[in-house]
Design a protein that fits this description.
The structure holds 3 protein chains of 3 kinds. Chain A is 75% helix and 0% strand. In chain A, helix 2 packs across helix 10, helix 3 runs antiparallel to helix 4 and helix 10 packs across helix 12. Chain A is globular. Chain B is mostly helical. Chain B is built from 19 helices and no strands. In chain B, helix 4 packs parallel to helix 6. The chains are: A mainly alpha, B mainly alpha, C alpha/beta. Chains A and B meet through helix 2, helix 3, helix 4, helix 5 and helix 10 of A and helix 6, helix 12 and helix 14 of B.
Chain lengths: 309, 403, 270
């Protein structure tokens, strides 16, 4: 049993946890800035970014994908701003135009690439691939200390772990200016904080997290990871520091429970195969959000939101 | 080539014709309904609803199979999709109203969670059926290949109904979209119109599931509407321009996809709509990038010219390089920064205009006129010659600007 | 006086001032526009150090815009800004900004004491630890505005007046030489207004400078030493006695202020 667990389940669960945390951290600030839907936009636009990088380099390598995705995110943000200013269009609609068009382009390119030997699967792009990120060379818990076994670890694991680490470090490093500029942008600017650059940096970090998580949960479910754990955390506390903590807890819980329910749940009901782990993670995070929305201690709105100037 | 021509002229067979017709009608309805959503600032709510259709499709399939029927009955699937879409909308509303979370977080949460649930159900169905493809993935990105005649009828019929509904509701829709408060005061039931609109959005979404897929239907709702915004300032015109743009995208996209059946239809239609949008973004005379750039340049030049002239009149040194460049180019100063004769004349004129405005704002009681002062509008564009003469009597004779 | 200078003088306006190195804030030729319409046009203003100056004008006159553009919070089309003789970027440590309350999300998960500590960002930097000394200083600022008992309260639970005091405490925590406030008395109760003006006057008495966008003409003369009358352009500027006159007010407000209303106000000399 334990050998099977380490081989089949340990790495997917770990990847899921790191992906969830890497997304939840920036997600906290995105929802406070009322930019939750940038997460929606980013998770749609990383697809064409990744596809273009893949078509250009011919491989499914990590760095080109990251660059492609970051580039796509930058292009998207610029286009969204242009549409907002020039057309006087509300932010939601501006985002909608950009990310659906870019996503459609990505899907089309993806379909075109079907003929080549190495290709990305549309279904995986949408729903992720978590269940297949298994550790072939493992034979049990002792493999964690065995260098030859460790060499066969799926590369997605160290990748997402690194991204989660970087995102955590950046969050800790820029905690103060990020908090101040999210709370009161004008005041932050007067202090000399580069609020616009910070906001832009936040979006880029989110894009990087989305790309890293893309392998695990695909394009659309990443949105759940940006929004649901932080949103649930927001309903649990009135202090930002505690909110971040809760979001990490909820993210981890969603990843673990989601994977376990997807993998083992059907077996408990007598079915043969598992269901989508990514989908189940999203569903569990939604369930947690639902519970906090009904029972959370700080779920009620306390103060007035910002008046649009 | 002849295959495309056949498709374009509705000669490629019953199914292809119906699909093209359906896509055309769908595009029109989506464009018009979407304009309303964009004007009411609810564009992405429809994205949440569209993604929320997925679990409904799956559950409907399971139920129909369990009841011994053909799981892929389109009408049944669409009914299921409508139910969960409505549920999703209710959730967005509930979250926004009963928690401290903002609308955007609610939309994103519903969108992704419902979609995730739908994905779980889809994979469940896959295991149920064994190797058999339920074909439900076609609802994600659209697939018109191998569509049944009955399906095509549903789509064409639904599209026509949606267009009819938009036509019937066009007046209240336009009024509410333009100014909901005013419409309410005029006796229009704004809540009812909003509800009708959400039902129409749901209808368009559900009809569009087969052709464009749920991930991209929101594109058809938003892109033609935003495109139309670049061409007109009137809400009514926007609705119809958006409808036409959507219809064109639907028509061309369906045609192209019947000719290349392996490609998913949804992305093609969306990309055509996006192409139309890009063109409009750049070249629309009212709000396009090109027009805006030109307008901004002209405005900057006016501001700097005016500021420069006033500085000349006050004999102040000018530091700003753009101001100097503007004045030099207009021949108002020499390269060394000293005013030319023309420059001094213009400066005196600008100073006098400024002084007249000061007098106008001090003496004249009508704020509708004095409120038009913005530093650039010349006073003779606002007041009559007699009024200006009245101000002049209070100011005194014009003064020359002498270096 | 040469004929040319007489030209400007007969118009009843002062000649545009040279940049004043002794002024707390000096603005020259500031123009700001929204969507190709000027909101503030070619404004020259010199805010004296060690004084309390009000910026006054009708709605839409560009008062907040002027403040924000001077601070670099919004972009400007043209103009120079110097603070205590230095460019803005070098003098930021000496400025404290109190923005309008409405621009903030008061449901933000933060406590009163945390907001005040935000004011110490320049001292703390990215990673500096918040020590007892910092907390004591923050509490002292809260005490000065009468909010010491609210330190651990969540900000959404505060009333409008209390929120404004917290904003002021945050500014005090910056220990600045120039305080710039945007409508500090808007929507606050009388007790808060008295408390705030008390703090501002004590700042002035310490030799610091205060500039505030003020919406209530009736209290300008009582609260402030100097005034800038603004309506897209600079109308008048200077000590209350010379600048806050019926003629200047009439120019600023146009027909919006009936003569009777002006008579009611406490003004400077004619």
């Amino acid at each position: 049993m334990s050998a099977e667990f380490v081989q089949l389940s340990l790495t997917p669960i770990l990847i899921g946890i790191f992906a969830a945390i890497a997304c939840a951290l920036p997600g906290n600030f995105l929802i406070l800035r009322r930019q939750a839907l940038i997460g929606d936009a980013i998770s749609h636009v990383v697809l064409p970014g990744i596809v273009v990088a893949f078509l250009v380099t011919g491989t499914v390598a990590a760095i080109p994908m990251l660059i492609g995705a970051a580039f796509a995110a930058v292009v998207a943000v610029i286009l969204i701003e242009a549409i907002k200013r020039l057309g006087g269009i509300e932010p939601g609609a501006a985002m909608g135009v950009v990310f659906t068009a870019l996503f459609a382009g990505g899907v089309l390119l993806l379909e075109q690439s079907d003929t080549s030997s190495v290709h990305l699967d549309v279904e995986h792009a949408l729903m992720g691939n978590l269940e297949s990120l298994i550790w072939f060379g493992a034979s049990g818990w002792e493999s964690l200390f065995d260098p030859t076994a460790l060499a066969t670890l799926p590369p997605e694991l160290p990748r997402i772990a690194l991204v989660a680490l970087i995102v955590s470090a950046l969050t800790w490093l820029f905690w103060r200016p990020l908090t101040i500029s999210t709370f009161d942008e004008g005041f932050a600017q007067a202090l000399g904080i580069r609020a616009a650059a910070l906001g832009f940096g936040l979006v880029i970090v989110a894009a990087v997290a989305a790309v890293a998580a893309f392998d695990a949960v695909g394009s659309i479910i990443v949105i759940a990871m940006f929004i649901c754990p932080p949103a649930a955390a927001r309903l649990m506390t009135n202090r930002l520091g505690h909110q971040i903590g809760w979001s990490v807890v909820f993210a981890t819980l969603s990843a673990v429970l989601g994977y376990v329910l997807a993998g083992y749940g059907p077996l408990w009901f007598g079915a043969q195969d598992s269901v989508s782990a990514a989908g189940m993670i999203a569903a569990v995070s939604g369930l947690i959000l639902g519970l906090t929305a009904v029972f959370g201690p700080c779920r009620a709105r306390v103060g007035e939101g910002p008046v649009a100037s | 080539m002849s295959a495309i021509w056949q498709a374009l002229t509705f000669q490629a067979g019953y199914n292809a014709t119906l699909v093209t017709l359906g896509a055309l009608l769908l595009g029109f309805a989506a464009g018009a309904v979407g304009s309303f959503m964009v004007l009411r600032k609810r564009a992405l709510v429809s994205d949440a609803m569209a993604h929320a259709t997925l679990p409904g499709v799956g559950i409907a399939f399971i139920l129909m199979v369990a009841l011994g029927g053909e799981g892929r009955n389109l009408a049944g699937l669409l009914a299921g999709s409508a139910i969960t879409a409505g549920l999703g909308l209710l959730c967005v509303d509930w979250i926004t109203r009963h928690t401290r979370l903002a609308k955007d977080a609610a939309i994103g949460a519903v969108l992704s969670v419902f979609f995730g649930l739908g994905v779980v159900i889809l994979t469940l169905i896959q295991t149920m059926e064994g190797g058999r493809q339920a074909g439900l993935e076609g609802f994600l990105l659209g697939s018109t290949a191998g569509m049944l005649y009955a399906d095509a009828m549903v789509i064409a019929g639904g599209g026509a109904l949606a267009v009819l509904a938009v036509w019937l509701l066009r007046r209240p829709m336009t009024m509410v979209a333009f100014d909901a408060g005013f419409a309410q005061a005029m006796g229009i039931n704004v809540r009812g119109v909003d509800l009708a609109m959400m039902v129409l959005v749901m209808g368009v979404t559900v009809i569009g599931l087969k052709i464009v897929g749920l991930i991209l239907i929101v594109a058809l709702l938003i892109i033609p509407a935003v495109t139309a915004r670049f061409w007109t300032e009137r809400a009514g015109a926007m609705l119809w321009i958006a409808g036409i743009l959507g219809a064109v995208a639907g028509y061309l996209g369906a045609v192209l996809s019947t000719v290349a059946p392996a490609m998913p239809t949804g992305p093609i239609i969306v990309l055509i709509a996006a192409g139309l949008f890009l063109f409009s973004l750049l070249f629309a005379p009212l709000r396009g990038v090109a027009a805006a750039l030109i307008r901004h340049q002209r405005f900057q030049a006016r501001v700097h010219r005016r500021q420069g002239l006033l500085a000349l009149a006050r004999l102040e040194p000018i530091h700003d390089p753009l101001t100097l460049r503007t004045l030099r180019r207009a021949g108002l100063i020499r390269p060394d920064g000293v005013a030319t004769d023309a420059g001094r004349a213009e400066a005196a004129r600008a100073a006098r205009d400024e002084r007249r405005w000061d007098m106008a704002r001090a003496a004249h009681q009508d704020t509708a006129l004095t409120g038009r002062y913005d530093g650039l509008t010349p006073i003779d564009a606002v007041f009559t010659r007699d009024q200006i003469a009245g101000f002049d009597r209070l100011i005194g004779p014009p003064q020359e600007v002498r270096p | 006086m040469s004929a040319a200078i007489t030209l400007a003088a007969t118009a009843g306006q002062a000649i545009a001032p040279q940049p004043d190195p002794d002024a707390a804030l000096s603005i020259r030729g500031l123009t700001v526009s929204y969507a190709d319409k000027p909101a503030v046009f070619s404004v020259d203003a010199s805010f004296a150090a060690g004084a309390m100056t009000a910026i006054v004008g009708p709605n839409g006159a560009g008062k907040s815009t002027l403040l924000k553009a001077a601070l670099g919070v919004i972009p400007r089309l043209s103009g120079e800004v110097t603070v205590f003789g230095q460019p803005l970027a070098q003098a930021r440590a000496r400025i404290a900004y109190v923005p309008q309350r409405a621009s903030v999300d008061w449901d933000f998960p933060t406590r009163v004491i945390d907001v005040v500590l935000m004011g110490m960002y320049r001292k703390l930097g990215l990673l500096g630890r918040v020590r007892i000394a910092h907390r004591d200083a923050a509490r002292a600022c809260l005490d000065r505005v009468g909010m010491a008992d609210f330190a651990t309260r969540q900000i959404g639970q505060l009333s409008g007046g209390q929120q404004q005091r917290v904003f002021l405490a945050r500014a005090l925590a910056q220990d600045a030489d120039l305080y710039m406030l945007d409508e500090p008395f808007a929507g606050v109760d009388a007790a808060t207004e008295a408390a705030i003006i008390g703090v501002l006057k004590s700042l002035r008495d310490e030799g610091r400078s205060v500039i505030a966008v003020h919406h209530d003409l009736a209290t300008v003369a009582d609260y402030f030493d100097r005034v800038l009358l603004l309506n897209v352009r600079r109308i008048a500027e200077g000590p209350i006695d010379t600048a806050f006159t019926p003629a200047a007010l009439q120019s600023t407000y146009g027909g919006r202020l009936a003569s009777a209303q002006i008579d009611q106000l406490k003004l400077g000399g004619a």
